[in-house]
Design a protein that fits this description.
The structure is a homodimer. By secondary structure, chain A is of the alpha/beta class. Chain A has helices at about 110-125, 130-145, 160-175, 195-205, 225-235, 250-265, 285-300, 315-320, 345-355, 360-375, 400-405, and strands spanning about 5-10, 20-25, 25-30, 75-85, 85-90, 145-155, 180-185, 210-215, 240-245, 270-275, 300-305, 325, 395, 415, 420-425, 425. Chain A contains eleven helices and 16 strands. Chains A, B: This is N-isopropylammelide isopropyl amidohydrolase.
Chain lengths: ~425, ~425
């Protein structure tokens, strides 16, 4: 059993100043006075300040806590910082970022297939190493306060399982700092590239947690065949599904409805996510309403990045209807485009901007998507800032949640399972 | 005549490493070797490093420069930084930011009029001082490398000319660090608030450089009357026009066409800007094409912020047609919404994201809008990085222009009319 740490002068979710007691990787209690701690086990650190609390009665105000819970506890003064639960990136592509490599001059064509073909060629030409690059993005994510990542990882007949292996290696290396979940992702198509299905099967056997899919109509040109294949893999391995659905308008609506129907027929409620789902941003609001009811009935989750240049799902109305929404940074600084940082507060801002969220309650909703929404989709147990939850949290200097989102301040402290993993915007681990 | 400064190891617009010689507030020459400078007049500074150049032949490689041009010159080592021309914010609202004030909890309603009425009330309740607040935004803008601002400034029957006076006071205070141009802006309506026209007239007499307008149909409910009034003011004072045109779709197209017709009838070509112009993002591409031809014929400029939640003008196609586009940060951290920083590189990124610009040439176009496009609209003489131009520039650590936009690095050095005004992200002047 580790010594406890008491974070004083913090404002969980922007609320009143309080303290948060952490031990054995979990939040043990809130509202313990620092003077209640009998002793300090570790030396003071500069930032954030660790102070010698005065002696006092440990049980005061929290009778359930025994004095032994607090024995040898550290006190960390949060300095009035906002405490947010660990940020979650529920849609990443760790294997393809080019962060840390020379600038990639992007001259790619306008179609989706241009980007897919270009990427497969450039991966070889430039040596985009899945382990090294995912490790780099992971370390940047830790510095920005991300506690969990769901990463789609390319599986195709060129790269085989090398990207899966690379990301798994990076995940293992940083397992004490961040949780990473893998989606086996047929980026270059599933049925149109014979051999991919077998590789997907192997990736799932190796431990990828989620079955990926991609544009059943637009990419594989065989929506029934594509959905049969990935639902078959999901059934075989007992794993959930996350499909990239870029198809817009009525075509996307068709693929979405086919997915909903399969979920209901197979009893996969709550286990399927449709990423992007641009069709939900189409002008035909009656069609969107019908799809929304189907999503709700089938418990299908929607991932949106708040793309500025595409029609997008309307976060507020989908949430009001009861649909679970999640968000993520998607690809960043890769052959698809140069934008993006691993900062989920910046992503939350972009989702807010795209959805015309201006009020504080609207921005709080956007952050709820990027935290609790993502946790629901990834089925993370004991997530949050309540006693009993895993101690995954971030401290930032901001007056309100909305200010944290729009200002995106340097992360003062990032804690994962009770341990400090980043300080003042820098991870305490290094990238290759 | 001031001593010259030679900025060595800089890459203007991301090109090859070179040096840039500055004297008397202008760029005198490029490509002068540091060893060509006979002496150094000022002591070395830490950042960026100023070094003692070796003795040598000043005229080498630049026979037109006399040795006396370089006498007593400083050498500033740019360390390989990218040199960009001074960034321009061609659409600001300096008088209404709440930066530096306690967090404003936004609970405003969804309509334009909700925001306008809310702001007028909150200005009084919260004491949003136009001088203090514009000074704060100006100082932040200087730190972010902005050399010129066009600010719309509210004129209405509540505030009268106080905002104009406040922004003019701040402009005077920071006149050596930044150029600020004022648009007299009837934010609460022109004809629907009797007395506003007279206040606008007085604001222009006081020195506001541009006549503002707002939604001729949507706000004043009298497009003919509104346009008659502001074109009348423009004629009387011999000043250009910049109209906020939020009206979308066919209504906006109607007001835009009325504006084009007036410009042609009155010979005001090149003197009118239509800000926002959401109607140019409407689905009817044939109507947009007809408007585009009208804009081109009338030399009407378009300002876009790349709003993520509204239909927007298509930057690439308008530019390809020959229309001049400019951009700006618009309101930031005000009663309208909490978003925004004075950083024009961030604005350029948002314009790029909204327009789905991914290629390096597309991002270069976005930055061209935020620099040379803005300069064309504001009719800035001698703007740029060529010899003879005013020495207004920014140094940033980035490999390419695209990287500067998507990474938005801290501004290493900001120079205005030859003088350093900000360093490492901090202005050398202070805000009240």
């Amino acid at each position: 059993m580790e010594n406890a740490t008491l974070y004083t002068n913090v404002r969980p979710a922007g609320g009143e100043l309080t303290s948060v007691l952490v031990r054995d990787g979990r939040i043990l209690a809130r509202g313990i006075p620092a003077r209640g701690i009998p002793a300090v086990g570790n030396p003071a650190r500069d930032n954030p300040a660790m102070v010698n609390p005065a002696q006092g009665n440990p049980a005061q105000g929290n009778p359930a806590l025994s004095a032994s819970s607090l024995e040898g506890a550290l006190v960390v003064d949060g300095g009035g910082a906002l405490m947010l639960p660990g940020l979650i990136d529920a849609h990443a592509h760790l294997d393809k970022t080019m962060y840390g490599m020379p600038w990639y001059r992007n001259e790619v064509g306008p179609r989706l297939i241009d980007k897919i073909d270009n990427e497969r060629a450039e991966k070889k030409r430039l040596g985009i190493d899945p382990y090294r690059q995912s490790a780099r993005q992971i370390v940047m994510s830790i510095a920005d306060g991300t506690s969990h990542i769901r990463s789609h990882v390319d599986v195709d007949t060129d790269i085989g399982l090398a990207a899966i292996e690379g990301v798994m290696r990076a995940r293992e290396q940083y397992r004490d700092q961040i949780d990473v979940e893998l989606v086996a992702f047929p980026q270059s198509g599933l049925l149109i590239r014979p051999g991919t299905l077998e590789l997907m099967d192997e990736a799932l056997r190796m431990g990828a947690e989620v079955v990926g899919g991609l544009d059943p109509a637009g990419m594989d040109r065989d929506p029934k065949g594509h959905l049969d294949a990935i639902f078959g893999l999901a059934d075989k391995h007992g794993k959930p599904i996350d499909i990239h659905l870029h198809e817009a308008g009525e075509l996307g609506a068709f693929s979405m409805q086919m997915t909903i129907d399969r979920v209901l027929a197979l009893g996969m409620q709550g286990k399927v996510t449709l990423s992007h789902s641009f069709c939900l941003g189409m002008p035909d609001t009656q069609a969107v309403q019908a799809l929304t009811e189907g999503l709700l009935k089938a418990g299908v989750h929607i991932m949106t990045t708040g793309s500025a240049s595409r029609p997008v799902p309307h976060v507020a109305s989908l949430r009001a209807a009861g649909v679970t929404i999640c968000t993520g940074n998607d690809g960043m600084r890769d052959t698809w485009g140069p934008y993006g940082k691993p900062d989920m507060l910046e992503r939350t801002m972009l989702v807010g901007l795209r959805n015309n969220f201006r009020r504080d309650d609207e921005l709080a909703l956007a952050l709820d998507v990027a935290t609790y929404g993502n946790a629901r989709v990834m089925k993370l147990a004991d997530y949050g800032l309540a006693p009993g939850c895993h101690a995954d949290f971030v401290l930032v200097q901001a007056e309100t949640v909305a200010e944290a989102i729009v200002s995106r301040p340097v992360r003062k402290l990032v804690v994962k399972r009770g341990r400090v993993v980043a300080r003042d915007g820098r991870a305490l681990v290094e990238a290759p």
